[in-house]
Amino acid sequence: MKALLLRRRLHLKIVQTVFHPHRDSEVRVTRGCGWVTHEKDCYKDDNSDHLGTYCQCYNNLCNSAETVDPAVATFLFLIFAAVTYLWSGM
To answer: Transmembrane segments in this chain: where (predicted)?
Structure first.
């Protein structure tokens, strides 16, 4: 009987700073899942055109983005709605 291999789901977060010759650098964040692990939880790479930080984790939501406070989001939506309403009445 073949041995059953149990794989834990791997979560990935990649943060890259991409250097452009004629404009400001940009930061790109990529999140995903995978199964191929690295010996380190996080490691960096440094190339001539970008810097990268690659991290892996195994818990749910461990690679999540920053959250927005619901009260702040509601306030900003109300301001936007009021401005839109007033703007459309002109």
So the answer is: 71-88
Domain extent for 23: 7-61
- In the chain, how many domains are there? 1
Nearest 5°: the CA angle 85, 89, 90 is 125
**Spatial distance between the Cα atoms of 19 and 28, rounded to a whole number of angstroms:** 11
CB count within 10 Å of CB 57 equals 14
Cβ of 82: how many Cβ atoms within 10 Å?
10
Q: Identify the sign of the CA torsion 30, 32, 34, 39.
A: positive
Residue 67 belongs to a domain? no
Q: Tens-of-pLDDT digits for all 90 residues of the chain? A: 333 344 567 888 889 999 988 999 999 998 888 878 888 889 999 888 889 999 998 887 777 777 778 888 899 999 999 999 888 876
